[in-house]
Amino acid sequence: MHHWSVFSLSLLLIGSCLCQYEPTWESIDSRPLPEWFDQAKFGIFIHWGVFSVPSYGSEWFWWYWQGRKIPSYVKFMEQNYPTGFTYADFAPQFQAEFFDPVEWVDIFASSGAKYIVLTTKHHEGFTLWDSKYSWPWNAVAVGPRRDLVDDIATALRTHSDLRLGLYHSLFEWFNPKFRADADNHFKTNVFPTTKSLPELYEIVNKFKPEVLWSDGDGDAPDSYWNSTGFLAWLYNESPVRDTVVTNDRWGYGSICKHGGYYTCSDRYNPGHLVKHKWENCLSIDQKSWGYRREAKLSDYLSIEKLIGNFVETVSCGGNLLLNVGPTHDGRIVPIFEERLRQMGQWLKVNGEAIYNSSAWRVQNDTATPGVWYTWNQKEKAIYAIFLSWPNDGYVVLNDPIVSASKTQVVLIGYQALSWESMSPTGLKVHLPQLPPSQMPCSWAWTLRLTGAM
């Protein structure tokens, strides 16, 4: 009897531990999103790979050159490279000779971000780690001859509190196994079982990422990728099962529908409250995710535009994943570094309106354009972030319900301000006349309202 009860108990433990999530979307989608992700609000995306060598046009360089044969890409190759030069010939030039992971982490940490997402493998199939499923098409076999993912993961964990996220492309444009499966209308699954899925297990077990950012379904359904089977393992048995967060790109038709949080489309920013947790992935270079040598200053988003995007995203319940593209030699160019450090300067002052906040009952003010709201449950505070400083010395907030005896209004980084109530709701806040040197920050200012509804 005693032995039987112990055996029963062990079966119960195995059942509750290993089979909490079934390999179905209904079960996978029922998993609560780990709290840290919603609290974090801000992450850094890093697109780096062999495409960083030509650094022309886009990180889709190989496909645009030899898949779609776009004339500008074909001409670029004809004018600058010898006949017979292949995409694989770029790999030995991916040397990363100036790559300093500790310096990268310093830049990322200074931005105020709470997590990073590094491309471990883009659609070109080149892995930035020492993958036994991608020999010799990886960073240890050719080019840098070092495990770049390990370098960044180690520096991140040694020198910061940021969480590690890894991006991984399911499909590869020109992989013969994938092309053969596609020709068979995905009735065969040689590519996912011998390449893509083994890589996913490999990076999770080796690097223990807390964000797994899947991408690139190649128009194949999630059943071809065995996405629900993999995610059930990730949530039940993997070393990061309790903290890992995943996105929604797990096969054709799954985007904005299945997975942990929704990305829906690149640069997704709906401008209204979205109930399901979502992420706006946005690149500082508006035309590319990978580094482009031909980029002009006007192609880069200004800090005002970035903060505006960020504030709107958080107000509507999302996180911002802001992308930089390092150079083939391992540098984060000064304009990217400047934008990230500026984000950090702004968050040092206004972070209480961002981190750990949630959406308020109204997202943007119904009377004054360019005012976005957040709510902090712990502080019982409404935050009104206004993107431009008004010329007439006051800002009207139409939506808060105020009380003459209880409501206090503080300009964050400065002091309490005087205000008068409007009818039937709202208030007019009188702003101080401050010289630039005394302004709490240089872009987008925050009013904290307590004792208001």
Automatic annotation (TrEMBL):
SUPFAM superfamilies: (Trans)glycosidases
InterPro entries: FUC_metazoa-typ, Fucosidase_C, GH, Glyco_hydro_29, Glyco_hydro_29_CS, Glyco_hydro_29_N, Glyco_hydro_b
Source taxon at top rank: Eukaryota
Catalytic activity: an alpha-L-fucoside + H2O = L-fucose + an alcohol; a neolactoside IV(2)-alpha-Fuc-nLc4Cer(d18:0) + H2O = a neolactoside nLc4Cer(d18:0) + L-fucose; a neolactoside IV(2)-alpha-Fuc-nLc4Cer(d18:1(4E)) + H2O = a neolactoside nLc4Cer(d18:1(4E)) + L-fucose
Endpoints of the signal sequence: 1-19
Keywords: Glycoprotein, Glycosidase, Hydrolase, Signal
Tagged with keyword Signal: yes
Pfam families recorded: Alpha_L_fucos, Fucosidase_C
Residues the record marks as site: May be important for catalysis: 281
Record's GO cellular component terms: lysosome
Keyword set includes Glycoprotein: yes
Domain Glycoside hydrolase family 29 N-terminal: from-to ranges: 20-352
Molecular function per GO: alpha-L-fucosidase activity
PANTHER family: ALPHA-L-FUCOSIDASE (PTHR10030), PLASMA ALPHA-L-FUCOSIDASE (PTHR10030:SF45)
UniProt function note: Alpha-L-fucosidase is responsible for hydrolyzing the alpha-1,6-linked fucose joined to the reducing-end N-acetylglucosamine of the carbohydrate moieties of glycoproteins.
Assembly mode: Homotetramer.
Protein name: Alpha-L-fucosidase
Gene source species: Culter alburnus (Topmouth culter)
